Every structure is written in C-alpha cells, then in structure tokens.
Amino acid sequence: MLVLSRKAGETLVINGKIRVTVLKLRGKAVRLGIDAPKDIRVKREGMLRKEKPATAQTSSAVSASKP
C-alpha cells in the first residue's frame, strides 16, 4: 500500500488516467474528487460489500432454478 500526504487542492494521478484531488479537509474527514474515464467504475468499498451478498444470492437462485 502506498501512503501519501496531500494538502487540499493537490492531485495524484493513477496510471495516467485517474486523477484524485483532495478537495477539502474537515477534522478527520477528507473530501476527494475522482476523475476517471467512463469505462472505469469508481465505487466506495462499503457499496461493494453490499453488492456481493446480493450477487451471491442471485447466482444461487439461478443455479437452483436450473434443471
């Protein structure tokens, strides 16, 4: 894991395509702006955790319904 310190207004670039900018610092919270190509999905990790169980249930239901 790469650990960086950035100030508000500073940007880092990932793979020459994704730009992450620190927009605002407020106490322990950081507001980030992410600029990525439309073909790259950007999601919060918490949202991915919520999607996995639903996906697993869906594939189980599909498997169960097949003869």
Largest sheet: 3 strands, antiparallel
Radius of gyration: 18 Å
**Helix segment count?**
1
Low-confidence runs: none
Global shape: globular
- Supply the number of structural domains: 1
Give the oligomeric state of the chains in this entry, treating copies of one chain as homo and distinct chains as hetero: single chain
Strand order of the largest sheet: 1-2-3
Find the structural class using helix and strand composition: alpha+beta
Distance between the termini: 46 Å
* Strand content range: 25-35%
How would you characterize this protein structure?
- The chain has 67 residues and is α+β, with helices and mostly antiparallel strands.
- It has one domain.
- The chain has one helix and three strands.
- The chain has one helix spanning 45-65, and strands at residues 11-14, 18-26, 29-35.
- The protein has a three-stranded antiparallel beta sheet, with no helix packed on it.
- The longest helix is centred in the last third of the chain and has 21 residues, at 45-65.
- It starts with 10 loop residues before the first strand and ends with a helix.
- The model has no long low-confidence stretch (mean pLDDT 83).
